[in-house]
């Protein structure tokens, strides 16, 4: 396996592979990680670090994978709070009373594609397999957010909604927020048909020519990462504070689960973030 990236680090601890981002590693008040396929106990199409309970894997294997991943990446297993994603734009503030939701406790809300917190002892967890992760950290207010942005959530401006929620809940100044747009299917591989293209083309304020490409015969390429970068800037983030991972999940499907590369036969990746004590 060959992994090349200019702005995303691949780390191994106790045989578990995970990604981290230098721009966030400089922030001493948080811990963060993005999972890979490597180091778990699942088998078959879920091999091996599957962290999604909804794909058909043995739930005991998934739970054990969470324990293994937390030990390797330095998170408290008992602090996890998972999103309950349906490609919408609902943002939820979570606290210590929510720990275990989606992992050892049932989801209590159907639609949650972004999580925010300003509490220690809470680890945010969101899920991916080509969709765009957005990691947000406000070092001034010591607050964090994780965003799952599929194409629907991207068009619905979930990144901007999450920034606005951090403003409302924590008094964040967008110019202080550091953001990483993480590994996702890249503009090299995200081919769509006319209805999806038209949704992105309608975002005229963002200048769609910068994130859409016409291939012909009713096919188009969309750059989800660039679209989300422009939305974060519309929300007030500074360009210098936004890092886009150069890792494409489809191009790196040996390391990362990709829905497109596997034709839907796959496990799931996660992003995790927490505030240090």
Concise account of the structure shown:
With 277 residues, the protein is α+β, with helices and mostly antiparallel strands. Helix content is 20%, strand content 26%.
Main structural class: alpha+beta
Radius of gyration, whole Å: 17 Å
CATH topology: CNF1/YfiH-like putative cysteine hydrolases
Number of strands: 15
Distance between the termini: 36 Å
Strand order of the largest sheet: 1-2-3-15-7-4
**Fraction of helical residues:** 10-25%
pLDDT < 50 runs, ≥5 residues:
none
Mean of all residue-level pLDDT scores: 98
Q: Sheet with the most strands?
A: 6 strands, mixed
Globular, elongated, flat, extended or rod-shaped: what is the shape?
globular
Strand content: 25-35%
Order of helices and strands: EEHEHEEEEEEHHEEHEEHEE
User: For this structure, what is the CATH class?
Assistant: Alpha Beta
Number of helical stretches of at least 4 residues: 6
Name given to the CATH homologous superfamily: CNF1/YfiH-like putative cysteine hydrolases
Overall number of domains: 1
CATH architecture: 4-Layer Sandwich
């Amino acid at each position: 396996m060959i992994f090349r990236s200019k702005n995303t680090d691949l780390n191994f601890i106790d045989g578990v592979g995970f990604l981290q981002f230098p721009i966030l590693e400089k922030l001493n008040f948080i811990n963060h990680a993005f999972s890979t396929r490597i180091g778990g106990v699942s088998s078959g199409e879920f091999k091996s670090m599957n962290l999604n309970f909804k794909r058909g894997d043995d739930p005991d294997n998934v739970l054990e994978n969470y324990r293994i991943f937390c030990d390797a990446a330095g998170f408290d297993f008992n602090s996890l709070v998972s999103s309950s994603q349906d490609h919408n734009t609902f943002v939820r503030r979570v606290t210590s009373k929510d720990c275990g939701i989606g992992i050892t406790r049932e989801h209590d809300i159907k639609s949650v594609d972004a999580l925010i917190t300003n509490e220690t002892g809470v680890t945010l967890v969101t899920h991916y397999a080509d969709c765009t992760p957005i990691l947000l950290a406000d070092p001034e207010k010591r607050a964090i957010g994780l965003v799952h942005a599929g194409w629907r959530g991207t068009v619905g401006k979930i990144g901007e909604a999450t920034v606005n929620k951090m403003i409302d809940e924590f008094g964040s100044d967008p110019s202080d927020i550091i953001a990483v747009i993480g590994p996702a299917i890249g503009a090299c591989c995200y081919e769509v048909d006319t209805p999806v293209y038209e949704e992105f083309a309608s975002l005229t304020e963002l200048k769609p020519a910068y994130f859409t490409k016409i291939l012909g015969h009713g096919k188009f390429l969309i750059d989800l990462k660039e679209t989300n970068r422009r939305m974060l800037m519309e929300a007030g983030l500074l360009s210098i504070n936004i890092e886009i991972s150069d890792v494409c999940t489809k191009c790196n499907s040996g390391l990362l689960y990709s829905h497109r590369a596997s034709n839907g036969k796959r496990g799931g990746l996660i992003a995790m973030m927490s505030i240090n004590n």
